[in-house]
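Q: Two folds, back to back.
A: First:
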Amino acid sequence: MERHAFAMKVKDGQMNTYRRKLGEIWLELTGFLDRNQIKNFSIWNADQLIFGYYEKADGAVLNAEEKSVKDRLTGEIQDTFQWISTPGEDMRLMYHNFGVVRENKELIRHRMFMTKLKDGCEEEYKARHDGLIAQRGDTVDPGPDSNFSIWSAGGYIFGYDEIDTTMERDETPEEHEATVAWETRQLGIMDWITNDVDWMTGECHPASRRLAWHN
């Protein structure tokens, strides 16, 4: 299975129009996804940012006709946003923790977060997360994280996580202390767009919203 992601920024005053146009093309868009066996497609929003995630079979490519359909559907809504990622290309994968794939999503919750890297901090962010992968040994994680990836483009960070709720538990005091230490270090290289660490900083940011989803 291949995982893919894209990102864009909605133009000033165009969010309502973006949502309306997305609704207008949704039926045809989901037909396109089904025909091409594109799974677990979702679109997320915070502030004026849009993040999209989807999965498809290894090596699957669109034929010319389906590529034309994709381009036409994108054209229907493209005047409402500017691309952050490069169209047709993935963003840079900054971190991954791909565990056991859950076919049944009913007991899965999602976490989607957004941050903005401080100038010149992209490589430091990548190095810190490479360190986490090295600590884990890049093995398959049984959970609760079953599908966690972090992507970057245009100086932004976008995280997507599927979490098995049956395996979640409260942090121990030691784990909580480690979380606070990690997030405090991260504040030196990035600023939050979503509200993931408002509990720690006392700031107020918007929560990410899932605007659309199709399995």
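A: Second:
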Amino acid sequence: MSEAMIPLSVAVLTISDTRTEETDRSGQALVERATSVGHRVAEKRIVADDVYQIRALVSAWIADSEVQVIITTGGTGFTGRDSTPEAVSVLLDKRIEGFGERFRLLSGEEIGSSTIQSRCLGGFANATVIFCLPGSTGACRTGWDGILAEQLDSRHKPCNFANLVIPERGQHG
């Protein structure tokens, strides 16, 4: 790839009732992966697994013109407080239907049929691309390494999501 990658501004949200900055390995893995390839981290936060707290913060980032990508980790399962899909899906203008399918295909190679317990999702809202990953560090690595690294790289061909959130290139409306 001869052209330079265009860095994106990424916000990382860990959704957990128990994690702290010291114990948040999943959020930190996403920050490390994003910055290691040249993206900027606009903000990294931890919020309780509560529909309204998640929705409030994700909404604020969607409205912030400085945030181009939002990646959440956690709250995508089936336990009583897992509510990330319910919190985020109503905010989306367009869903990325293939994201969850691709993630579960990759994850299935690692954890077998347990991958069906992930309700990860992706979509667009206000020219911001949003990806909701499971809370395990392994799942974050799988999602980043197998999908997000390429899709957030403006040089990836034949297409990528980076070019849809870069204002001078974007076609998303």
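Q: And?
A: The first strand starts at residue 9 and ends at 15.
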